[in-house]
């Protein structure tokens, strides 16, 4: 029996499997492997981030969608083309296993590439998977909670400033949803004035939704501006720190929430294969077959599939299908047929598809888009958007859950429950620009810092003599250990002297390591008396 192996449980993989399932092929053993056991309807992620839909209601268990096809929840870590096998890590201990294939279908999507802007990787949120949306929702609610109680006005300003980078579909939908969520929640935060909340959208192109017509971009601009969202067009994001987004030469936007919807690349796994890549995607022919490899197929965001319908492109005379769910689903139809046609030695079908249209929700019951040749906007576009996505969700139970989530919106307030604890990241890298304060005297300890790049100064004023002591930290040095290990509040203020990067270990994780790893225990038992008793601290 021939083995068809499908990698990836997104639109491409799941729709391919569904198509093959429908064909009832008895001569094939078909298996789908994905690192999550659920299918995410990515267009709903901005709504998960804004709490319109709860995270578990926006996903569908893959096993329930594919009752006649094997499913394996595992991470693919190797594609061995020569031996026609795939390496996977599965089970509790993530043991290495190998699975042979006759036909391999790759639908692994793309990864966010945050290396395109300095500091973006360390300091920005992304909107690609369920975790991203869930974390963003919690972070935004946490910002509101902190802003409601802080007495530090500059911190409050940063906590109430939200920046989205990228004015395409996901950027526009994310900022629209975020604004609506905060708008609905703000009345419960008595110490926050609506005028203190700022939204910013940064786009490199000269219009929003650059994939669509100019008119649609202009309408989107008008609606978002009306919602008090500050739009920066023709603007390049130059750098990001943990406190600001740097744009044109001397301009920066203070913010603790920078959300990136830009930059995509192939996963490390695909880069490690010998398969041909262009623009971070596997190059296929018009049949969705990866070029020069007859038994390897690719579709969806990870594939560069020529679209025979569209007119020619400058350098290659080909037009490639855009990375959208709509196109991935259509490719799944053609690809699944072609895999069978190939084994029957029949002529393969070319991928030809004209988009039926595109719609975006702008929040506040407004939408925009184009259906066939007709432009739609406002409430009508928003209703069509809702109806279209509801019908597009590939599972009836998920459709019902999403529908009731939407319905509830009209009757009950938005849920503002924090569902993950404060500081749940044990390790994170952070960037600071020259002059930025990492923490100040009097604050409680939040973490332990190791300097990766740059330089910091530490000024201690709480000494018995009242004198100020200064200390400098360079690459490889660390700060923040004493208060975590000995208690009390920060006695010094740490300031970046240059553009710098740190690795921050959160308080609890650091304490566990320093108290249990003998080498660290010994090191700090000598380091603290040596460095701090000489300063004669008041506390
Ligand atoms: C916020 C947002 C909004 C969007 N809105 C729209 C919209 O309105 N309309 C539209 O048409 N498109 C929209 N898109 C784009 C659309 O969602 C994608 O084009 C589509 O999801 C691509 O499907 P895919 O199967 O190629 O990749 P994905 O959906 O990314 O699926 C890839 C799958 O592979 C799995 N995987 C990855 N690596 C491994 C590994 N090593 N081992 C095992 N499994 C792995 C992943 O977990 C995932 O299940 C949006 C995207 C985003 C992020």
Commentary on this structure:
With 539 residues, the protein is of the alpha/beta class. It has three domains: 2-35 and 74-110 and 266-343, 3-Layer(bba) Sandwich (FAD/NAD(P)-binding domain), CATH 3.50.50.60; 114-262 and 357-408, 3-Layer(bba) Sandwich (FAD/NAD(P)-binding domain); 427-535, Jelly Rolls (Sandwich). The strands form ten sheets. Strands 5-2-1-9-22 form a five-stranded parallel sheet, with helices on one face. A five-stranded parallel sheet has the order 11-18-12-13-14. Strand 16 and strand 17 (252-254) form a beta hairpin. Helix 1 packs across helix 10, helix 5 packs antiparallel against helix 6 (153-159) and helix 14 packs across helix 15. It starts with a strand and ends in a 7-residue tail after the last helix. Residues 8-13, 33-36, 42-43, 45-46, 75-76, 107-109, 127-128, 169-170, 267, 269, 300-302, 323-326, 328 line the site of flavin-adenine dinucleotide (FAD). Residues 8-13, 33-36, 42-43, 45-46, 75-76, 107-109, 127-128, 169-170, 267, 269, 300-302, 323-326, 328 line the site of flavin-adenine dinucleotide.
Keywords:
alpha/beta, 27% strand, 5-stranded parallel sheet, 539 residues, FAD/NAD(P)-binding domain, 31% helix, binds flavin-adenine dinucleotide, Jelly Rolls, globular
